[in-house]
Every structure is written in C-alpha cells, then in structure tokens.
Amino acid sequence: MIKIIALRELKSLFLSPLAWTILAITQFILCYQFLAQLETYLQIQAKLSVLESSPGITDLVIAPLLGGAAIVLLLIIPLLTMRTVSEEQKNQTLPLLFSAPVSMSQIILGKYLGILGFLLILIALISLMPLSLLLGAAIDLGQMSAAVLGLMLIVAAFTAAGIYISTLTRQPAIAAVGSFGLLLFLWIINWAGTSADTPIEGQNILAWFSLLNHFEPLLKGVFSTADIVYYLLFIWLFLVMSIRRLDRLRLPH
Predict the structure, then answer these.
(1) Quick one: CA dihedral 83, 123, 11, 103, positive or negative?
(2) DSSP notation for 111-147
(3) What per-residue confidence (pLDDT) applies to 201?
(4) How does pLDDT run across 181-239, given as a tens digit for each residue?
(5) Is residue 38 classed as helix, strand or coil in its secondary structure?
(6) What is the chain's Cα-based Rg?
C-alpha cells in the first residue's frame, strides 16, 4: 500500500504543471550558477596552480553548486508538501482516505516517499552538471559523493518537516509559509550562538540543531556518523509526529 500511495503521489505531481515548472526553474537557476562558477574558476586557474594545497574544481564549483541547490530546494519543497494533507482536509476527502484499508503510517510514508522520489529525480538531474566536468577535468568523486549524500539527506529532512506542517492546517498556503519558516529557522538557528554573550554550551546546542551545521561538513567531503544520525533522527521525528497528528484527525472530536 505504501508503494501504491507513493506512485500515486508521484504520478499526480507529474500530471500537474507545478512539478514541471519547478524542474525547469531549478535547472535554469542552478545551471546559471554552475556556468558562472566554472567561468570564474577558469579565470583564476592559472593563479591557483602555483599555490600549494590550492582548492580544486570540486571545492570551487561543485560544492557551491550543491550548497546553492540546498537553498533553492528549501524554498521549493514547502510548495510540494503544502498540499499533501492540508488539501485533503480542505476538500474534506480525509474521511474517504481513512475509510480505505490503509494505516496512518502507510498514508504518511506513501506521500513522503512519493514527494521524495520526485526530489531524488531532481537531484539526479542536478548531479549531471558536475559529472559533465569529467569530460575535461579531474574532480574529487569522494567529496562529490559526500556532498550529494548530504543534499539527499537534507532534502529528505525538509520533506518530512513539510509534511508535518501540512497536517496542522487546512490551508495549503499557510502550510507552505509555516514549512518555510520552520526550515529557515532550523537552517540559521546556530547564528544566534555566534554572539560573544552566548555560553559555549549554548553555542554547541544551537549548532547541533542547525540543519546547515550538519550539511557543511558533507559538502567538504567530511563524512561524519553524527551528521548522518542527526538527519535520520530528524526525519524519523517529523514522520512520527505526522502519523500521530493524522491519527488524531481520524478520531471523532
């Protein structure tokens, strides 16, 4: 049943103009960024070659591209998740969904995997840009693999949080704004710890909760189990809260 719901969700995305618009706009923005960074790298390549331990094309082109992709997807994913449950509530079709022989876990996981499948297709298309450099340059495939893994994890976390916010309201627009606000807050939460007045313990706690703080090491090719566990716990927490919230909506008031 999870597979059926996921395929139905994925198919409905591709049947709507929203998905195709997102694919086109995202590719255009990131392609422009990729070409601009590549041009800059080619201009300074001669100067970098005389330096010891100079950054390569992976550090100066690929990592910023995937970092920029995370920011673009932070803006886009709330638009994809806003309708998952809130529109069902608005159209009063949730009782029909509840009457089907599926559990709340299957509904949430199916919708989650459907949206995530679309986003993984998008990430695959984005990854083709840096991979095209293999035709004329040597790139650090290890660092790129870690960066792509980080992008996949952070996108999976964005989606889980977005679906949970969608369960809290009947209005898709409110769900989109709420998801964006939550994700942006978790992205920049460690900024508050940069103040000299903030104790070291407080800085460490804020840094641990920051989505960005766990993403940056992976962009640099630093694979840390703590970062992977953070994202897995984040995804698990928001999916569990979504299932519990949907279960509460199922019960008569």
Answers:
(1) negative
(2) HHHHHHHHHHHHHHHHHHHHHGGGGTS---HHHHHHH
(3) 55
(4) 999 998 888 775 555 455 555 556 777 788 888 899 999 888 889 999 999 999 999 99
(5) helix
(6) 20
* Gap between the Cα atoms of 88 and 100, Å rounded: 14
List Cβ neighbours of 77 (8 Å cut-off, separation of 6 or more). Answer: 115, 119, 155, 158, 159, 162, 179, 183
Expressed as residue numbers, the domain containing 196 is 2-250
**Residue 192 and residue 198 in contact, taking contact as beta carbons nearer than 8 Å:** yes
The first and second tokens of residue 4, run together, are 């059926």
pLDDT in tens, 149-179: 999 999 999 999 999 999 998 888 999 999 9
Q: Is 128 exposed, middle or buried (0-12, 13-18, 19+ CB in 10 A)?
A: exposed
CA dist., res. 111 & res. 8, Å (int): 9
Looking at the 3D structure of the chain, how many domains does it have? 1
* Tens digits of residue pLDDT in 95-138: 777 777 888 889 899 999 999 999 999 999 999 999 988 887 78
